[in-house]
Design brief:
Helix content is 48%, strand content 17%. By secondary structure, the protein is α/β, with parallel strands linked by helices. The chain folds into two domains: 154 residues, Isopropylmalate Dehydrogenase (3-Layer(aba) Sandwich); 158 residues, Isopropylmalate Dehydrogenase (3-Layer(aba) Sandwich), CATH 3.40.718.10. An eleven-stranded mixed sheet has the order 3-2-1-4-11-10-5-6-9-7-8, sandwiched between helices. Helix 5 packs parallel to helix 6 and helix 7 crosses helix 8. The longest helix is centred in the C-terminal third of the chain and has 26 residues. The radius of gyration is 21 Å and the shape is globular.
Length: 340
Amino acid sequence: MIKVAVDASGGDLGNAPVLAGVRDALKADPDLFVSLYCDDASHTEALKSSSFPSYLRSRLSLHLCGESVAMDDKPIQALRNKASSSMAKAIQAVAQKDAQAVLSSGNTAALVGFGLQLLGTIPGVTRPAICTALPSSKGRTWFLDMGANLEPTLEQMLANARMGAGQCRLFDNIQSPRVGVLSVGSEAIKGTQIQQDLAAELAKEPGVNFVGFAEGADLFSGAFDLVVCDGLTGNVALKTAEGVAHFLTDELRTVLSRHWVARISYLLLRGSLKKFRRRMDPARYNGAALLGLDGLVVKSHGASDSGAFENALLLTADMARLDALNFLKGELQGASAGVS
């Protein structure tokens, strides 16, 4: 049994995608149990049989919360004034061992804040990092930090690299992942001082194959298994990539519907084009772990539709199933022992 606490409130699109995503994830994973932390509107909707059929009810529990964290809430205000929110209560369930992991599509800064307040960090980490996998020409590339820590120290970025390398080993069985530092060019002389210093540390790091500096295009080239950067750069890079993916699929749809010859071509290529669209769809890769917290916390994109939220929930369940938290603790403990 895998039990995940889900914050049903706070996303950009309301509760409908969350509820539908939870329902579909319960159908897809028979070992999944969900504790749904809801505001009034989400609770009322979740009680309807149209939202959750009776055969799924045994694997769903509802928890009515007095409030929710809005996307425009400042994290300090949320921490001070919204301790009874659905986000806080869902994270508290992990802290109290009532759930193995938590998933939220709400305010990222508040999620990091509540995570730090209620869970703390694992040994060797002072600030969490948001990590996800991106499609590449050779499979996927792990990428962090995507926005949890905008101005990290060298020690924090090195801890991030170690946790990211752990993701490569845990999920992809890559024992010596090819690691790069995102910079303005691939040449060794480029980049900021902290990027230069991180590169020097990673070149000495046991258990990783430091390839060098990565440029933005390398996120998808397949040349790296893991790319490390600060949270500001990572967030901008990820959202740019999402925008390009949506642009390409929209443009392709427009081109293929413009002329009868193009429509015939579409019919001939429909199977291949569907595979292309699926591979380019950011929803397929939804779900980013806040690595470094002393509890499994996963962030879903705020604008997730039901399919994207389902994918994020299934990823969260897989992380719990693989005991990712204890695996990363072991990775960091081993890295610290190697340094000493």
